[in-house]
Amino acid sequence: MGVSRRGLMAAGVALSAGRSGGVAAQEATYPVRPIALTVPFLAGGSADIASRLLADRMNPLLGRDGRIIIENRGGAGGSIGAEYVRRQPADGYALLTATASSHGTNPAALPESTRYDPLADFTAIAMIGSGPLVVMVPGNSPYRDFAGLVAAIRARPGELPWATSGAGGIGHLAGEYMGLRLGGLRGEHIPYRGGSAVTEALAKGEVAYSFEVLASTAMNLREGRTRGLAVTSLARSPLFPELPTLAEMGLDGFDFGTWNVLMGPAGIPRGVVDILSRATNAALREPVLRERLALAGVDAGAPSTPDSTRAFIAAELEKFRAIVAQAGLRLSRG
What we know:
D-Maltodextrin-Binding Protein, domain 2, nine-stranded mixed sheet, 12 helices, Tripartite tricarboxylate transporter substrate binding protein, Bug_dom1, BUG
């Protein structure tokens, strides 16, 4: 693995040289107690699974005193958990698994009901991973491929019903982005409360198609309740390698997905941030962890830094805000 707890602590001591005594002492001894990692969704989802897998591999690096404890605080597309962490002390003992919803689509599509700045109010630490969405239809749908679905939307512009697990969420913006890439073509958007409600609507034939996180709906696809037509990433997913990408289907460069990022409240000392970032990257270099994440639909990707992580979130925000503006969306959380 190449990085030990002693190495991480030594790096913290070196980085703290020249700082004020209190901050330097904090960085040199961090961590001295358990670290609470808030997952802003209920247990069992993709973000929760990825967080637990990562914590399990980071714990030996941080030592017994700094064991990571997962806390689930779901609601409002991740905003409730994010708002909770924003208010915690910036000492490195309250962290957040930020997601494309909590720190991307919510601030972009629902700014009036998102009570935090996704960049200014948080400290970026490291990327955890990302994953694609899937364009899916009912298991008995007459649309056998993506081209067939597009033809049906063109035949009934603005009328063919499509579902998402919430207005302004990642699935909604993915569908709007697809419509923009198809020259403004779209169906009738019907938001539901959660992915299970979307799957039920598809199974009953209430809607024609949907965009959902691939990892979260994998079981429904395997059981035949729904059928996948394409994934939204540039490369095919190892979970369903038979599914083509939207880029392969003619939407060149289409790259849209969900992601998980390790963050904390704004103002965490840089030495503490670097200790956490090094531990995260060291854990994510382990082949066993990468394989387990891949089975959960999460691509660990390349190593990251706090600065590159912050730049990634800023770029995603810009992309999401552009989609909201171009699609003319006016949304509010009911």
